[in-house]
Design goal:
Length: 319
């Protein structure tokens, strides 16, 4: 691929590999609820988003200190750089750590330490997006956002993730309005398992600048027209969609249809430790399954740089 790639949709906690889970459990003197690492790996079979989230939240128990978060983030940067990623924007779930008694400062200090040196250490620019857990009370979202702002955490945006169905974007109107008022970028998971209506809400009520996943937009032609006209990027995660049974197999993935409709599609890994690979693996598997052309690869790469929140000068360097 001639153009460098940006990864715009991955959850840093979803890059926690089984070996690292065992290393961190040992360092933090914790017992794991698995017989051994093979037992843990045997659980990476998912029937839907919730079945994955259950394991994702359970495994992050091993993340306790700033050092743990810094090591996790650096491990992802190392692997992403090897995958050809030049710019990474990743989510983290502050509520999921604070609820376990981990101070928010430990989470932020660790992640931001890795972000601050990613260009020097790995040749990759990076920024963090705090993601609100949509299946938790709205009040918790308001509180964690207030804390993040009080601590002046250098995040680039606010996102919305976790169990989608039954938890519409509209619930979080106020906290996203505050984020926009703070000058933060705004994105939201929508149309992964949830209906097209949630994508409309993410755009109209939250002011989302990008939609994470968005594959169910295809069910609503008026929505597709809106996304095309307004050039709203969709951060699509092909391997994730198959592992979480949004589509039966990669051959059935509508990525090409989406490109042909004129949607601004990007390719991302979502939770690479859980879904069978990083960005390079997503491109390679797509190549095998649907035979991506060189021009499609180039479009996907350019889309990712243009859709990023990198500075204009960084984008110009990468395009
Ligand atoms: N959190 C981590 N991965 C997610 C996904 N694919 N959808 C919603 N929330 C998530
Ligand atoms: Zn995601």
């Amino acid at each position: 691929m001639a153009t460098p790639v940006a990864e715009l949709h991955m959850h840093i906690e979803g890059s926690l590999e089984p070996e690292q889970i065992y290393r961190l459990a040992e360092r933090n003197r914790m017992d794991l609820p698995y017989k051994d690492i093979e037992d843990l790996k045997s659980r990476y079979e998912f029937s839907d988003l919730q079945s994955f989230l259950d394991l994702y939240f359970a495994n992050m128990a091993v993340l306790r200190t700033a050092e743990d978060f810094a090591d996790l983030t650096r491990a992802y940067f190392r692997r992403a750089a090897a995958a050809g990623v030049s710019h990474a924007e990743f989510f983290f779930n502050p509520q999921a750590h604070v609820v376990r008694g981990v101070p928010l400062t430990e989470v932020l200090d660790g992640i931001m330490d890795a972000v601050a040196s990613s260009e020097r250490e790995f040749g990759l620019s990076s920024s963090a997006i705090a993601a609100i857990l949509r299946d938790q009370p709205v009040r918790d979202a308001e509180e964690i956002f207030s804390e993040i702002i009080r601590l002046q955490a250098p995040i680039v945006g606010l996102g919305l993730d976790s169990a989608e169905v039954g938890n519409p974007p509209s619930l979080f109107e106020d906290v996203f309005a505050r984020a926009r008022a703070e000058g933060l970028h705004v994105v939201a998971h929508a149309g992964e398992e949830g209906p097209p209506e949630y994508i409309w809400q993410a755009l109209d009520i939250l002011g989302a600048e990008r939609i994470d996943h968005g594959v169910r937009a295809l069910e609503d032609p008026a929505l597709v027209e809106r996304l095309v006209d307004e050039e709203i990027p969709l951060t699509v995660c092909p391997l994730s969609n198959v592992r979480l049974r949004v589509f039966d197999k990669l051959e059935d993935h509508p990525l090409r249809t989406m490109l042909d409709l004129g949607l601004i599609v990007t390719v991302n890994s979502d939770d690479p430790a859980y879904f069978g690979g990083y960005v390079d693996d997503n491109f390679a598997e797509l190549g095998r399954a649907i035979g991506l052309t060189e021009s499609e690869r180039e479009t996907l790469a350019r889309n990712s740089i243009k859709a990023s929140f990198a500075s204009e000068s960084r984008k110009a360097e990468l395009l």
